[in-house]
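Researcher: Let's try something more involved. This one mixes different molecule types, so please make sure each is placed in the same coordinate frame as the others.
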Amino acid sequence: QVQLQESGPGLVKTSQTLSLTCTVSGGSINSGNHYWSWIRQPAGKGLEWIGRVHSSGTTNYNPSLKSRLTISVDTSKNQFSLNLRSVTATDTALYYCARDTLNILTGYYTDTWGQGTLVAVSS
Amino acid sequence: DIQMTQSPSSLSASVRDRVTITCRASQSIRRYLNWYQQKPGKAPKLLIYGTSSLQGGVPSRFAGSGSGTDFTLTISSLQPEDFATYFCQQSDSSPYTFGQGTKLEIK
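Model: All components are placed in one shared frame. Result:
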C-alpha cells in the first residue's frame, strides 16, 4: 500500500522560498497512470489545489501560484518536491502531498494523501 | 478556473437521518466530480470518484449522482462516524478546484 510523507521546514521567513519534499513508499513513483500532487489548507479553511507532476516531468500548476511555483520529481529517490518562492503570510497552511490516479472512464481522483505538514510564514 | 459551490455550508442532523449535500460547478464538468470526507486533524479521504463510483472500503450508505453542473452526495442513514466535513472537487480541467466544504454536525 502506497504511503506518502511530507518533509520540510515548519517555518519560512517572508519573501523566502518554501520547499517541501514528499517521499513515496510502498510503491513506485514511476507509474504511468498517476500524478503526484500538492494541496494546501489554511487553518480552519478549505482545500486549495496547488499543482501536480507526472513521473515524466509533466506538470500542471494552479495559475494563481504559477509565477512562484515549481513542482519537480526525482524518480531515483521516489520523491517529488514543491518550491514556492516569495512567500507571504497568506501561504501559511497545512500542506498535503497526494497521489492522483487516472481512471479512463471517471477521470483523475486523489486516492492517497500524506498526513500533511504545517508551514508558517513569518517575518 | 471552474468554481465549485457547495450547499449547505453546514448541516445539523441526527444519527439515522438521510442527508444530501449539493455541489454546483460554474460550467459543465461532465461527470468528473469527486467527493472527500475530512475529519478534524486528518487528511481528506476519498469517498466517491467520477460522480458515483464508490472508493474501496467506503460504506454503501454513501452515494453520488449528477452530471454537467449539478451533483449530490447522499448519506442514506447517518452513522456517528459520518460527522465530518465533506468537499467536492472537479477533475475536468486544471486547476482542479474544490468546493468550500460542508460541515456535518450532530443535532
